[in-house]
């Protein structure tokens, strides 16, 4: 009932303002906002029929004009400079004027996913009290998209931009905050973070309807996601309400932490996740960076549910301009919400600093499986990002090999020339290898940067 009242109130508001010929902006444009630097950014809204709208940007005192369409909508692009601010944006129609104040120009990132992305300092993170107390960064800005569902694509969201203060940080995505803080420290520019996370959600609800129209298989797989009391499960219902309204807003990239709720239909996750990423990019109109967190080891109800999703996430790296953070070393297998969000945000930020901003030269990835080479009764396993490959312990753990019968046996592992050599007395003619292949595996293979290797299974 409350959702219906909110919808009717919103429609009434928009209708009444248009009848009175007042220009209206979507809620992503408020005081304290951050606009993407060095870009052509869209600014849009509603007005009267054939109304002329004028926008003046204070960073260059340039004037832009546009006339509303028959739909009463208007949309134009303005040029943004390099990072800076605060600025103002004047939006003027024939009967009213909106002045957006304290506007910054910088880097804007979108965060989405389920509860580990949504998780805030108030819900429990390491060193929470100290982190909250010190979260005073006026050049970091937050936008929290209010939770809403819709069976049709929406034009607007609910929310407003806020400066980062101890009060605003404590209820915001902790990973998003730590990511922003690292970027701010290293780049010394304003950072805007938009949070659309919703706990317990499957990837289907964040995926456009067009994906399911094109794939009967994915539509059938979506039916395996059972109802839950924490989140909606109907495909596209959050994409329509919380992602689609933002797709004209220029972003630098997206951060994603999700997958726990897709363990029930893990066999389709690689295809679903890949198509979700490509559909978002298509609808935004450019291939922005998409960095995501591999789900952590956890005691899922059925064997291999979790590791199959982790492996699907590893395989999704074939999509260009994506990157994955592995967190098997900072997890707690009996808690699906690891409290160390600082290192997760830092690892995501380091990837952005290296790949997007070219300001970091250090290794930012853990070892990723590359290939196997059969050497008689032994197997040589090669990895990307393997410099300084080491076992953090007396011996390597969680490696298994299989022969022609397909049965896996625990393998002895040793490192030679930054490759792992495996053997198992039960397997005379090895064919396949798998690593950390269980829901709760906590392997000890790392590279010289201290980053853990991802679980994998060879083809």
From TrEMBL:
The keyword Signal applies. Pfam families: SASA. One of its GO terms (molecular function) is sialate O-acetylesterase activity. Keywords: Hydrolase, Signal. It comes from the Bacteria. Transmembrane segments: none annotated. InterPro entries: SASA, SGNH_hydro_sf, SIAE. Residues 107-351 form the Sialate O-acetylesterase domain. One of its GO terms (biological process) is carbohydrate metabolic process. Residues 1-21 form the signal peptide. This is Sialate O-acetylesterase. It comes from Maribacter algarum (ex Zhang et al. 2020).
């Amino acid at each position: 009932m409350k959702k219906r009242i909110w919808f009717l109130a919103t429609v009434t508001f928009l209708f009444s303002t248009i009848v009175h010929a007042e220009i209206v902006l979507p809620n992503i444009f408020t005081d304290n906002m951050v606009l993407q630097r060095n870009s052509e950014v869209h600014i849009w809204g509603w007005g009267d029929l054939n109304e002329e709208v004028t926008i003046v940007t204070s960073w260059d005192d340039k004037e832009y004009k546009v006339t509303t369409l028959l739909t009463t909508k208007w949309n134009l692009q303005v040029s943004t400079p390099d990072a800076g601010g605060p600025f103002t944006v004047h939006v003027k129609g024939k009967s009213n004027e909106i002045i957006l104040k304290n506007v910054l120009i910088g880097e804007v990132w979108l965060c989405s996913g389920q509860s580990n992305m949504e998780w805030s300092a108030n819900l429990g993170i390491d060193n929470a009290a100290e982190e909250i107390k010190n979260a005073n960064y006026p050049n970091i800005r937050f936008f929290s998209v209010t939770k809403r569902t819709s069976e049709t694509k929406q034009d607007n969201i609910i929310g407003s931009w806020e400066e980062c203060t101890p009060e605003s940080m404590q209820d915001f995505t902790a990973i998003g905050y730590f990511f922003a803080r690292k970027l701010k420290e290293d780049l010394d520019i304003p950072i805007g973070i938009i949070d659309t996370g919703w706990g317990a959600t499957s990837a289907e609800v964040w995926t456009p309807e067009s994906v399911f129209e094109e794939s009967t298989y994915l539509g059938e797989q979506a039916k395996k996601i059972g109802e839950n009391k924490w989140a909606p499960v109907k495909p596209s219902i959050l994409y329509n309400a919380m992602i689609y309204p933002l797709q004209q807003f220029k972003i630098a990239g997206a951060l994603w932490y999700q997958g726990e709720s897709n363990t029930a239909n893990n066999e389709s996750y690689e295809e679903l996740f890949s198509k979700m990423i490509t559909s978002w990019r298509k609808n935004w109109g450019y291939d922005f960076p998409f960095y995501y967190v591999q789900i952590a080891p956890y005691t899922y109800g059925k064997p291999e549910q979790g590791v199959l999703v982790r492996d699907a996430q590893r395989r999704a790296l074939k999509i260009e301009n994506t990157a994955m953070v592995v967190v098997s070393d900072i997890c707690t297998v009996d808690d699906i919400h690891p409290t160390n969000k600082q290192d997760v945000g830092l690892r995501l930020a380091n990837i952005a600093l290296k790949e997007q901003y070219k300001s970091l030269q250090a290794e930012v990835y853990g070892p990723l499986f590359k290939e196997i080479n059969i050497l008689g009764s032994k197997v040589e396993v090669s990895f990307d990002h393997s410099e300084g490959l080491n076992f953090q312990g007396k011996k390597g753990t969680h490696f298994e090999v299989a022969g022609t019968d397909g049965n896996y046996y625990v393998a002895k592992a040793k490192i030679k020339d930054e490759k792992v050599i495996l053997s198992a007395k039960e397997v005379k003619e090895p064919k396949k290898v798998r690593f950390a292949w269980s829901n709760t595996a906590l392997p000890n293979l790392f590279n010289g940067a201290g980053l853990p290797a991802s679980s994998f299974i060879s083809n």
